[in-house]
Amino acid sequence: MTQPLLLNIAAWLPRSCANGPGTRMVIWVQGCPFRCLGCQNPDYLEFKLNQVVTVEEIWQKFQQLPDLAGISISGGEPFAQAVALADLARRVQSVGKTVVCWTGYQLQQLQFNNIPDSQRLLNHIDLLVDGLFIQQQVSDQPLRGSNNQKLHFLSGRIVEADLVNIPRQEWILGSETLTYTGFPVEYKQLDQGGV
User: Fold this and answer.
1) Considering only CA atoms, which of 133, 78, 82 is closest in space to residue 102?
2) Residue 79: enclosing H or E segment and its boundaries?
């Protein structure tokens, strides 16, 4: 009997509208090799045990929400857990849903630089948002924290037209929690001139 694939997650949301087209489940994985100045998720950077779950557990939760458009994966760094996430992403796509993933790596690095099992995960991603977050380049573009980050429509199942009207930020009120998700907003200084 094979061992179940495990994921070390930092957080998850059953439903979000700010993390890709449609209503999506979101998973943030624990651990990241990058240390981007101004990282929105600094608690997710350290490689430490947080919430260890099986892929099957996440898959069961996903299946209980048939109205979801898909799953979005962020972090931390998803490609640090590529094998387990590839299995989850494969399952999501097998039922006609889509997968969005953010990474600090660039697509070319994932394709050619021998990052373990990166191609395995790439094979099951519909939209990849790549590149490190650069605080001095805060973006107002859909699904990007900074202007250097690029969208890669890998499967054709998500296209640029699907990214209109996605809220930049979202607050989700639970029975005992208030969760913020989304992307930084560039605050422009108001003109100190006239009223």
Assistant:
1) 78
2) none
154's tokens: 């890998």
Taken in order 147, 181, 152, 47, the sign of the CA dihedral is: positive
Cα 114–chain centre separation: 22
Tokens 């994985």, residue?
29
SS3 label, residue 1: coil
Superfamily of domain 6-182: Aldolase class I (3.20.20.70)
- Residues 144/145/148/154 CA torsion (nearest 10 deg): -30
Provide the pairing of β-strand 98-103 with 150-153.
Answer: unpaired
The rounded mean pLDDT for the chain is: 91
Q: What are phi and psi of 163, to 5 degrees?
A: -100, 10
Residue 168: burial class (beta carbons within 10 Å; 0-12, 13-18, 19+)? middle
The model's pLDDT over 25-36, given as tens digits with 9 standing for 90+, comes to 999 999 999 998
Confidence of residue 182 (pLDDT cuts 50, 70, 90): confident
What tens digit of pLDDT does each residue of 58-96 get? 999 999 999 999 999 999 999 999 999 999 999 999 999
DSSP, residue by residue, 17-76: SSSSSSSEEEEEES--S---TT-S-GGG-S----EEEEHHHHHHHHHT-TT--EEEEESS
- Burial group, residue 14, by CB count within 10 angstroms (0-12, 13-18, 19+): middle
